[in-house]
Amino acid sequence: xxxxxxxxxxxxxxxxxxxxxxxxxxxxxxxxxxxxxxxxxxxxxxxxxxxxxxxxxxxxxxxxxxxxxxxxxxxxxxxxxxxxxxxxxxxxxxxxxxxxxxxxxxxxxxxxxxxxxxxxxxxxxxxxxxxxxxxxxxxxxxxx
Length: 144
Known about the structure:
16% of the residues lie in helices and 43% in strands. It has 144 residues and is α+β, with helices and mostly antiparallel strands. A hairpin with a 5-residue loop joins strand 5 and strand 6. The longest helix is centred in the middle third of the chain and has 13 residues, at 47-59.
C-alpha cells in the first residue's frame, strides 16, 4: 500500500444520560480496541457532515455534530518499519438525537458506556487521552 499523504479522520464525542458512545473496532487500525466512533472524511464533506454520517454508519445513532473539541494524529508502522497508517483525527462535540447503538460498518460492537465502566475496557490510546482531557471529573478517576 502506498500512502500519498495523511488521511483526515473524524469522530464524535457523544454523551447521553451519563454515558459515552463508544465502538469496538472491527478492523485495523486498532482492531479489538474500544474507541470514540468515527471514520474518514470524504471529499466535499464538512467535518460535521462526515461525523454525522460515520456515527450513523458505525452505531445506528443519529447525532448533531457541532464544533471540533479534540485533535490528534495516529501513525502506525508495520514490522519492517514502513508506514501503514497516518491519520489526522478531529473529534467533534455532538448531541444525541435518536437511535440505539448497534454495531455497523467496521465496528464489531457499539454501546453507551458509563464512566465507571471505562477502566474495564481496552480503550485505544487517543480515546483514553481525549476522554481524560475533556471529562477529567467524569472519566479521569477511571482511566489510568
